[in-house]
Write a structure and sequence with these properties.
This protein is of the alpha+beta class and 185 residues long. The chain is 49% helix and 19% strand. The protein contains eight helices and six strands. A six-stranded mixed beta sheet has the order 3-2-1-4-5-6, sandwiched between helices. Strand 2 and strand 3 form a beta hairpin. Helix 3 crosses helix 4, helix 5 crosses helix 6 and helix 6 packs parallel to helix 8. The longest helix is centred in the middle third of the chain and has 18 residues. 36% of the residues are buried.
């Protein structure tokens, strides 16, 4: 019985409970276990590879990982006064609590950094077509969901046209098109 309990705890510690994506133009996914310890950080495009660099986050807390990734985005010029919107997307267990926590953490980082911008937040809903597009364009499922929402609001746009845009550009499109996203101050 004791072996079974320890085995179940070890499995839970290694099982993905949530996937968090951070998008600016770099797209990065973070997989965490139930205790919000990082299992993997995956850059989804070339800019994401620059942001992650040679950092190894396995076993780190989610807060430390997000802080390091945002810091790298700042240092590498992906977040600046002109390009200042960050999309935080959460998929998995306890999404609303995790989404609120991460959005506030990123907003706190934003307030301490030398830029002022928008932190957009959303819960991701699974969709196989959207996942296929995300994979094809090297973006997160969160960014794919945002693009899908823009296209639903304005069908004159195409996924192919919007996928290369930064989150800042997509955010401006949302605002001008009357699409509201959750923003954290």
């Amino acid at each position: 019985l004791v072996t079974g309990v320890f085995g179940a705890q070890r499995y839970a510690a290694g099982a993905v409970a949530s996937t968090i994506s951070l998008d600016v133009n770099p797209s990065v996914e973070i997989q965490v276990n139930q205790k919000e310890n990082v299992l993997a950080v995956t850059p989804l495009n070339d800019d994401g590879k620059v942001v992650v660099g040679d950092m190894n986050f396995r076993g780190s807390s989610l807060d430390v990982t997000v802080n390091a990734l945002i810091g790298s985005m700042l240092r590498n010029g992906y977040i600046s006064e002109l390009n200042n919107s960050i999309l935080v997307s959460v998929d998995g267990k306890n999404t609303s609590d995790l989404q609120a926590h991460l959005s506030e953490e990123v907003a706190k980082l934003r307030r301490t950094a030398a830029f002022d911008g928008a932190v957009l937040s959303q819960t991701v809903t699974e969709d196989s077509d959207r996942q296929a597009k995300a994979d094809a364009y090297g973006i997160t499922l969160g960014k794919a969901q945002l693009i899908s929402r823009i296209i639903e609001k304005n069908p004159l746009h195409t996924f192919e046209e919007l996928a290369p845009l930064t989150i800042n550009q997509l955010n401006l499109m949302c605002q001008s098109g009357g699409l509201t996203l959750e923003q954290v101050d």
